């Protein structure tokens, strides 16, 4: 059975690159009928925070990426890591080291001055030091030969063992380091396939050495290229939103994020839009790209605009009320009608919210240029006729409102723009809103009349 995993560190919100890694692992496990496991790597007690655990879990849930079995916390597995370190020491694959920071800094400086690659020189490797308050445990990396990794994306990759040094696997305070915990966890959890960023490639060689020393079966590795900004540097906050949390706050939909991330490093012909079910059915490792992908915010916005039009209205409503409570005085039915009226005009849910603020207050500021252009004497008659005809509507329906608009345009000999523009400014404070009949309908009779009256009184 295929078993994949995602192992975030709770030191921040879920980065969009991490979300893609989680997605690829999830899709591969689901496509193979296997399991997708989730592990929280929280051994860094200083930087790990529970709020980020909650944020990561919430983001994965929002994206629809569910995990199997129990959630694993590394902080609960200290005894397992200590047992692995003890086994490596017993087998002669690890040793105690008491080099001070000052000693190591001096070594690094000397190596850099000599033009050498900075690395630990193994000076305590054969001294058989005993455990003490100031000793760390280092892994004995083989000194000769090469280590070969058969990566499903990169192919066979060879590294000379002399390029690697004896990394620390347990700190002086007894806490394990990243490379040790990853090795133990992946094997203990039965992980068969590790799909992660290629920035971990150097770690993989070290981890494979440890697995060999412990007699573990090596998982299959796939190292995917990182996501880059338009400047071809690693995607970071300087490029814009980078966390799943940020993208949700900006009003992007989970299906849009999933679709964009899936195509950011993987392809299935020319097909660009997928349901989750289609992605699971089609996803495979052989169609992964070997080169880095450039994150294009404009393309994501375009994709989001498409899905805003296509998504079930109840799903849009959930995102709408997640992002704002401004509209909590309105009934759910009215909010849904507003979203429906705005969805074809907006690229994000946040834009729908921003463009719908005029529904909330009868009084609002209007740009002076619009006042000068539309609050003019020749529109007094239009406003008076509109008020009188709106007052006569007994049943407030879209059909009746359209009939009133048609009657006014015929009576005053107006085309639609000549009617709609001044009316829209009077009702919304701008020239941007849904069609004028829908705008009037959604505002309601009382509010429309009040706003038109206010506009009329502003005409000198």
Would you kindly provide a brief summary of this structure?
With 460 residues, this protein is mainly alpha-helical.
Written overview of the protein:
- The protein is mostly helical and 460 residues long.
- The chain is built from 19 helices and twelve strands.
- It has helices at residues 16-31, 50-63, 78-90, 101-113, 178-188, 201-214, 244-249, 254-263, 276-282, 297-310, 313-323, 332-342, 349-355, 368-374, 380-391, 398-412, 416-428, 436-443, 445-457; strands spanning 3-6, 35-40, 72-73, 94-97, 136-139, 146-151, 155-160, 168-170, 193-197, 220-224, 227-228, 293-294.
- Strands 1-2-3 form a three-stranded parallel beta sheet. It has a three-stranded antiparallel beta sheet with strand order 4-5-8. It has a two-stranded antiparallel sheet with strand order 6-7.
- A hairpin with a 3-residue loop joins strand 6 and strand 7 (155-160).
- The longest helix has 16 residues, at 16-31.
- The model has no long low-confidence stretch (mean pLDDT 94).
């Amino acid at each position: 059975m295929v078993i994949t995993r995602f192992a975030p560190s709770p030191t921040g919100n879920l980065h969009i690159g991490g979300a893609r890694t989680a997605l690829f692992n999830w899709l591969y496990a689901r496509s193979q009928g296997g399991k997708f496991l989730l592990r929280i790597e929280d051994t860094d007690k200083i930087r790990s925070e529970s709020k980020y655990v909650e944020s990561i879990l919430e983001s994965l849930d929002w994206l629809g990426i569910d995990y199997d079995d129990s959630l694993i916390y590394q902080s609960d597995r200290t005894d397992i890591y200590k047992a692995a370190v003890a086994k490596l020491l017993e087998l002669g694959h690890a040793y105690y080291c008491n080099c001070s920071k000052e000693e190591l800094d001096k070594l690094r400086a000397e190596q850099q001055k000599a033009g050498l690659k900075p690395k630990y020189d193994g000076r305590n490797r054969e001294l058989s030091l005993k455990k003490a308050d100031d000793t760390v445990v280092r892994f004995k990396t083989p000194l000769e030969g090469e280590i070969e990794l058969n990566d499903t994306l990169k192919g066979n990759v060879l590294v000379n063992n002399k390029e690697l040094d004896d990394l620390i696997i347990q700190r002086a305070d007894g806490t394990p380091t990243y490379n040790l915990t990853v090795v133990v966890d992946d094997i203990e959890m039965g992980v068969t396939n590790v799909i992660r960023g290629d920035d971990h490639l150097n770690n993989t060689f070290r981890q494979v050495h440890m697995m060999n020393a412990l007699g573990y079966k090596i998982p299959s590795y796939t190292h995917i290229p990182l996501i880059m900004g338009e400047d071809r540097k690693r995607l970071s906050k300087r490029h814009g939103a980078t966390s799943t949390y940020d993208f949700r706050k900006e009003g992007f939909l989970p299906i849009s994020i999933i679709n964009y991330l899936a195509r950011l490093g993987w392809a299935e012909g020319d097909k660009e839009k997928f349901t989750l079910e289609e992605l699971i059915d089609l996803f495979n490792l052989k169609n992964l790209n070997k080169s880095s992908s450039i994150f294009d915010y404009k393309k994501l916005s375009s994709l989001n605009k498409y899905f805003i039009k296509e998504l079930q209205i109840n799903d849009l409503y959930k995102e709408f009320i997640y992002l704002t409570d401004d509209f909590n005085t309105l009934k759910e039915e009215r909010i849904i009608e507003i979203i429906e009226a705005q969805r074809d005009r907006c690229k994000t849910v946040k834009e729908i919210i921003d463009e719908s603020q005029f529904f909330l207050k009868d009084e609002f500021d209007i740009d002076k240029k619009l006042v000068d252009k539309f609050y003019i004497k020749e529109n007094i008659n239009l406003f008076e006729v509109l008020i009188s005809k709106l007052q006569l509507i007994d049943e407030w329906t879209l059909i009746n409102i359209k009939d009133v608009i048609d009657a006014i345009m015929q009576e005053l000999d107006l085309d639609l723009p000549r009617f709609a523009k001044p009316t829209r400014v009077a009702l919304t404070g701008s020239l941007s809103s849904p069609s004028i009949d829908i705008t009037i309908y959604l505002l309601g009779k009382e509010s429309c009349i009040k706003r038109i009256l206010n506009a009329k009184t502003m005409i000198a």
